[in-house]
Amino acid sequence: DTGVSQDPRHKITKRGQNVTFRCDPISEHNRLYWYRQTLGQGPEFLTYFQNEAQLEKSRLLSDRFSAERPKGSFSTLEIQRTEQGDSAMYLCASSLRGRDPTIYEQYFGPGTRLTVT
Amino acid sequence: KQEVTQIPAALSVPEGENLVLNCSFTDSAIYNLQWFRQDPGKGLTSLLLIQSSQREQTSGRLNASLDKSSGRSTLYIAASQPGDSATYLCAVAPLYNNDMRFGAGTRLTVKP
Q1: pLDDT (tens digit, 9 = 90+) per residue, B34-66?
Q2: Helix (H, G, I), strand (E, B) or coil at A69
Q3: How far apart are CA B29 and CA A101, in angstroms?
Q4: Residue A1 pLDDT > 70
Q5: Which site in A84, A96, B34, B85 is 20 to 30 Å from B79, CA atoms measured?
Q6: What residues of chain B, 52 to 111, have a C-beta less than 8 Å from chain A?
Q7: Are B102 and A107 in contact (CB < 8 Å)?
């Protein structure tokens, strides 16, 4: 396994269009996270899954955003009716959460850069 | 609410110099702290993870320390090289939720 992959790497869309991003985590990892990063800032947490269950969502995740992780493998993040403020890098990460939470490490994908025109 | 701050925001050093990057956080209730490297337009690469019970971790020319009680961590880079040029981010994993909090990063430039 070569790590976390994301597709597409870049997406340019017009305001009002819907977009969907895909993330494939490291195969044995049970946790999957989505983050958003704007220029000059650190990533901001959006949501995470434990297997197929979405357990936590940030207040940043408006009702235009939806994420799924069917069968606990890959995940998709959809943004409906995109706005210019949605332009950012969307990062996916995965981790293997065992009994000791202090040792779990998040591994990040290369990100999808979204530009809304 | 956990706040993570990194100082300085940018740093430029000549090749070969030793340097220290700083990270501070406001809530000591954490599982661990991670340091990441990010190249322009790329994802994050994990460098070091320090568990809440640990004081430091080392990997090659990198050494990270953690003082949980004072809410501080440092990343020490020895004998810097131009290939070390990147943005370095620290992040804390809080005890009470899974909302990993990142600093804004320190942009490091190592001049040949």
Answers
A1: 999 999 988 999 999 999 999 999 999 999 999
A2: coil
A3: 13
A4: no
A5: B34
A6: 52-53, 89, 91, 93, 97-105
A7: no
